[in-house]
Design a protein that fits this description.
Blueprint: H1 2-16, E1 27-31, H2 38-47, E2 51-55, H3 61-71, E3 73-78, H4 83-92, E4 98-101, E5 112-114, H5 115-120, E6 135-137, E7 153-154, H6 155-165, E8 184-187, H7 194-206, E9 210-213
Parallel strand pairs: 1-2, 1-3, 3-4, 4-5, 8-9
Antiparallel strand pairs: 6-7
Helix pairs in contact: 1-2, 3-4, 6-7
């Protein structure tokens, strides 16, 4: 379908775009609110064999840089309004490949690449085989008992949680008779939070429900 095709095109772009081509296992940082483009941004990254960490866009530049430095982020996907924060991180990062701007345009001199342009262009690359035990995402704890810490979750971890969430023995709200019924879900929990990502975004895609994204 259309979502799969957008994810696939994003994956090819991330692996082959001249000036910011990523390598399997490297880390992408998402600095985004809840917007529709979050889907190809994160699934395209995962399809490319990359690891994703996501940050609260309302964090201070210092907080974002600390997380991205700790995670080893090589590329940031963000909005034009947040490009200055990405550029601050770029100046601190030891190895930085580039920034993808959703709603922005290519600026090759600054290694900034327009999200829509990447999707429209044809990129030649071979998508890697994904090991289910490889790290998929690297969310950070809230820091209630100290500084936020990265939590490694594999592809298997995410899939297992989705299976649990739709199993009648574990999720009493889910019933087989609900299959095929499309609901409309307001995505109030942020996607940069593990609950918003796996329990809302991933679960709704798995159960084919409609998502209404609310940026704030």
């Amino acid at each position: 379908g259309m979502i799969y095709e957008m994810n696939r095109r994003m994956a090819h772009a991330l692996l082959s775009q001249k000036g910011c081509a990523m390598q399997k296992g490297e880390v992408v940082g998402l600095l985004l609110p809840n917007i529709p483009e979050y889907v190809p941004a994160i699934y395209g990254s995962l399809m490319a064999g990359l690891t994703v960490t996501f940050a609260n866009p309302l964090y201070t530049p210092e907080e974002i840089c600390r997380q991205f430095e700790n995670a080893g982020v090589r590329l940031v996907i963000t909005l034009p309004v947040l490009l200055p924060v990405a550029q601050i991180y770029k100046s601190k990062a030891k190895k930085y490949r580039g920034t993808v701007s959703i709603g922005g345009q290519h600026n090759v001199q600054e290694n900034i690449f327009g999200f829509q342009q990447l999707l429209m262009e044809n990129h030649e690359s071979e998508l890697p085989v994904i090991d289910p035990e490889e790290t998929a995402i690297l969310p950070y704890s809230s820091g209630t008992t100290g500084m936020p810490k990265g939590v490694e979750l594999t592809h298997n971890n995410l899939v297992a949680n989705l299976v649990q969430g739709t199993h009648p023995e574990f999720a009493k709200y889910y019933r087989p008779e609900y299959a095929g019924i499309t609901e409309t879900i307001l995505t109030i929990p942020p996607f940069f939070h593990i609950y918003g990502f796996n329990a809302i975004l991933n679960m709704c895609l798995k159960t084919r429900n409609h998502l209404v994204s609310i940026p704030r």
